[in-house]
Amino acid sequence: MSDAAEPLEPVEAPPEDVAAAEAFPASDAGGDPEEPGEPEEPGEPEHPGEPEERRYPSTLGGLLYLFMLGGAATGVLVAWAGDWRAGVRLLSLSLLFGAGSRLLVPSHQAGMLRVRHQLVDVALLVAVAAILFVLVGSIPD
């Protein structure tokens, strides 16, 4: 008797899931591209004749974010124009306004103010505003 090992035959992969194969059949080259299971084109309006109505900004938080951004930009411009202390204070106040807005506006309406968890957003905005405000008062002329 010989103990020579017989060569192993390659194992074939099991067939694909039958349910998945039926749900997503392979498309033919000459098939109809507008089959009922095909997704619609992105950006295609539901009613082609009607323009899509959109509000800008679409949330209350988005509007408040724009106010905060405008105040911050004004602070940077004031600092650039020469009175850097007043500009940085205005920037700091804008960040505090953003923190208060994020705290008071519900999360589903926070828009651009919502980046992380509510308390993390508020804590970071207050911390940066406080640091800027303290630095403005502590840097000598």
From TrEMBL:
Comp. bias (Basic and acidic residues): 44-56
Q: Does the keyword Transmembrane helix apply?
A: yes
Q: Which InterPro entries match?
A: DUF3017 (IPR021385)
Cite the record's Low complexity compositional bias ranges. 1-30
Q: Where is this region: Disordered?
A: 1-56
Q: Record the organism.
A: Nocardioides fonticola
Going by the UniProt record, its keywords in alphabetical order are:
Membrane, Transmembrane, Transmembrane helix
The name this protein carries in UniProt is DUF3017 domain-containing protein
Indicate yes or no for the key word Membrane: yes
Membrane spanning segments where?
Answer: 63-82, 88-107, 119-139
Q: Can you tell me which residues the record assigns to a coiled coil?
A: none
Compositionally biased tracts (Acidic residues): 31-43
